[in-house]
Amino acid sequence: MKNRDALVRKEWKNEMEMYITGIVQNHQHKMLAIGSMPDHIHILIGYNVNHLIPDLVEEIKTSSNNWIKGKRLSKFKFQWQIGYSAFTHSHSQIDKVVKYVLSQETHHKKKSFKDEYLEMLEKNEVVYTNEYLFDFFNDNDLEN
Questions:
Q1: pLDDT digit string (tens) for 91-123?
Q2: Which of 9, 41, 102, 143 is a good FRET partner for 3, with 20 to 30 A between their CA atoms?
Q3: How many other CB atoms are found less than 10 A from the CB of residue 61?
């Protein structure tokens, strides 16, 4: 979320995930797993090489943002944060990644999004500078 606001609510996150799944599938990608947290979302897809990832992400963000606003699901201004990350996985890792995506709530009780994200960047040898990272906040903010 923009400014790392925790605006995705449990009451409507499943409906949002179904909406985003529709977007993914309408562009001939295969939705393998989707997992929302109050402040971010993980999506694992079987990728359609004829549709660029930046275009898919833009469509997901724009359409879901308009859908959330149109349904008035958030009493606060809802907007996805600028940027995204995309990682590839070997076919042999699909089951492991699906389980990871679907267990976000349990996973983030043990490790913060920031710690998880920085670990992913380091594991994948992604060179980064702090100015280009997402805005992070304390896990305690999720409980409010």
A1: 999 999 999 999 887 877 788 878 888 888 888
A2: 102
A3: 18
